[in-house]
Amino acid sequence: MTEQSTATAPQPGWSVEMFEGFWSNPDPALVPAVLTEDVVGHWPGRDEPVRGRDDYTACIAAIVEALPGMRLEVAEHAQNGEFVFIRWILHASGAHGPFELTGMDRVRVRGPQVAENVIVFDTAAFE
To answer: Which of 23, 77, 92, 127 could form a disulfide with 67 if both were Cys (CB 3.0 to 4.6 A apart)?
Structure first.
């Protein structure tokens, strides 16, 4: 008699570990798979939220293009129900050389996908 495994394969989707792994070598092509169709993104400096997978992914692509070689590390995180809070440290180079920036994401998940993200950081670092 052979023993059958009752373990299930992990479901793909958003997690803190995936977030950190993504930002260690960001590829915007991977973003849509972890977003709900109606995802909403709130970025500092924008008058209106970004809505939908295409626009949200375009924002990520713009960041990656503006800061080649950037990486982000997760400093702390916590979860409260459908909300995940992540304090991160961005390491990048800009027009005036290398810099670090600390910020926070408040991610609302629906199932294995991001339904909303509120990103907070001091935009003065980019001036």
So the answer is: 92
